[in-house]
Amino acid sequence: MTSRISYYHRLWQLYRSYRRNDAVVRFPPARLWIELSARCNLRCVMCPNRDFPEDQKGDMGWPIFQKVVDEAEGFAFEVSLHHRGESLLHPRALEFIRYAASKRMRTKLHTNGSLLTRGLAEGIVDSGLSRISFSFDGFTRKDYEKIRRGGDFEQVVANIRGLLEARKKAGTRSPVVAVEAIALSGRRKPGGKETSLFQELRREGLDELVVKEPHNWAGYWKSGRRSMPYTLCTFPWNALLVLWNGDVSPCSQDFFGTYILGNAMEKPLTEIWNDEPMRRLRAGLSERRFEEFSSCSDCDRLWRDTFLGIPREYLRRLIFRRLP
Fold first, then answer.
1. pLDDT tens, position by position, for the chain (324 residues)?
2. Contact call for residues 263 and 209 (beta carbons, < 8 A)
3. For residue 176, with 0-12 CB atoms within 10 Å meaning exposed, 13-18 middle and 19 or more buried, which class applies?
4. Which residues are CB-neighbours of 313 under 8 A, at least 6 positions away?
5. Nearest CA to 247 among 237, 259, 239, 232?
6. Residue 226 CB: number of other CB atoms within 10 A?
7. Which terminal CB of the chain, N or C, has fewer other CB atoms within 10 Å?
């Protein structure tokens, strides 16, 4: 596991490069997303996956995964093993998780939890994964199943409990277990009977409940993006994302992959990091030419409240290494 000193040194260097609007960033990204699968077994109301063409949904092959993980070990502090789909749909998901977790990086998995059998839960606890978070939008069965179409509220709660039980039985505190919900329709916190569920899960070992602000998926959902001052997006200065087919994207919000930097099977990630497409994007955003990029032109991530140039909503999590 990489040291905190190295982590904060990298953050400082990337922050300086970001504040200078550098088109070429001398230090490699601190964070990496690896999309194990673009397929999903649910059709959630707020997720673009339901409109994603079927012929573009697939699972990452081992050669791509191994190459990307081996490269990432040399520079990434955090690797998230998910993106547009449900990672546990991948037939070799546990094997992939184990391999990534064996490297000197913090590894994270985000899942809807519907496929988490007891056996898989035990395997994940034993894998070395650093953090697992569950999408749990809707704090009651009625709300949950209305939002997460195709999901079973009681089954997912049971699966979360099964993971907590497996972790307790193993006598470990890893992985960190979190439940994440989006504050849809102004709803920010659970209340009443809903609170009791999370209190019970807390007593059973749940580490964190995170209620997140919704975003518009780079304009997929129309929103009043200019209600805040223009904010230079931080993502091109600190992270990369590798899609299931090896294509590399600069942004986790660009769900449909409209701006591709290159392919991980053709070039090293560190070369793609400063190749011409990324330099063009950084320069364009720095000069407020965001409308030249379809994934940025209507994205609400460019219009946020900030502190020292960093979006406030992620500042604390970035500092304390608790980003989702």
1. 457 889 999 999 999 999 999 999 999 999 999 999 999 999 988 888 888 888 889 999 999 999 999 999 999 999 999 999 999 999 999 999 999 999 989 999 999 999 999 999 999 999 999 999 999 887 788 888 888 899 999 999 999 999 999 999 999 999 999 998 876 554 445 555 556 888 899 999 999 988 777 677 666 666 655 667 888 999 999 999 999 999 999 998 898 899 999 999 999 999 999 999 999 999 999 999 999 998 888 888 887 777 777 776 666 666 665 544
2. no
3. middle
4. 213, 304, 305
5. 259
6. 10
7. N
Backbone angles phi, psi at 303, to 5 degrees: -135, 80
What is the sign, positive or negative, of the torsion defined by CA atoms of 83, 87, 89, 90? positive
Q: For residue 81, give every residue at least 6 positions away whose Cβ sits within 8 Å of its Cβ, in sequence order, or none.
A: 34, 36, 87, 96, 97, 100, 107, 108, 109
CA 136, chain centre distance (Å): 15
3-class SS of residue 321: coil
Q: For residue 12, what are the CA distances in angstroms to 2, 17, 156?
A: 16, 9, 39
Q: Identify the burial level of 222 via C-beta atoms within 10 angstroms of its C-beta, where 0-12 means exposed, 13-18 middle and 19 or more buried.
A: exposed
The 3-state DSSP class for residue 37 equals strand
Exposed/middle/buried for residue 210 (C-beta within 10 Å: 0-12, 13-18, 19+)? middle
What single-letter amino acid sits at 32?
Answer: L
- Residue entry with tokens 């409940």: 209
d(CA 299, CA 132): 27
Query: Contact 322/314 with Cβ under 8 angstroms?
Result: no
- 179 - beta bridge partners? 134, 209
- Record the pTM: 0.90
Structure token digits, residue 232: 């230079």
